[in-house]
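hi! just following up on the protien thing from before. the input was this:
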Amino acid sequence: IDDVLHSVIYKGRDVLFVLLDNVTDVRNVGAIARSALAFGADALIVPLKGSAQINHESVKASANTLKDMTICRTESLESAIEYLKLNGIAIIGSSLTSKTPIQEVNFRKPMALVMGSEGDGMGAVIGSKCDEKFIVPMSGKIDSLNVSVSCGVMLYEIYNQRNAKY
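and the predicted 3d structure came back as:
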């Protein structure tokens, strides 16, 4: 994480990491990596335990883009978050209980986007470490999306804000 963080800062860009909190489906990891690469994320941060393996199936789901994405494996996602915070990186995540719509969040800053597990979302401990939470408003009878689809939507909003011409 340290090497990637310093490399991005050296290039003069705002950091954008994607943290995976207990995402266990290899296909979701692959799809998240593909969206992360498409929308300018610098790295995926993945815990060594409780997370999907990076394997042939995840590479296939990423359409081979996983090979081009920087992956930082960490013993503890909590420790990684604390390290990022000490280095001025905001920790941001989505929550179904948040009242702040995604469009009202300022993503033009160094940040790490937390993506929670397929069934439970962000864990309580990781959620409590977020500096800011938002909700993706939806119409219809469902209140959430697949984690990889959600990640793509969120990264697109971040990309749009960071590349706006105004």
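Strands lie at 16-20, 43-47, 71-74, 90-94, 111-115, 132-134.
The chain has a mean pLDDT of 93.
cheers
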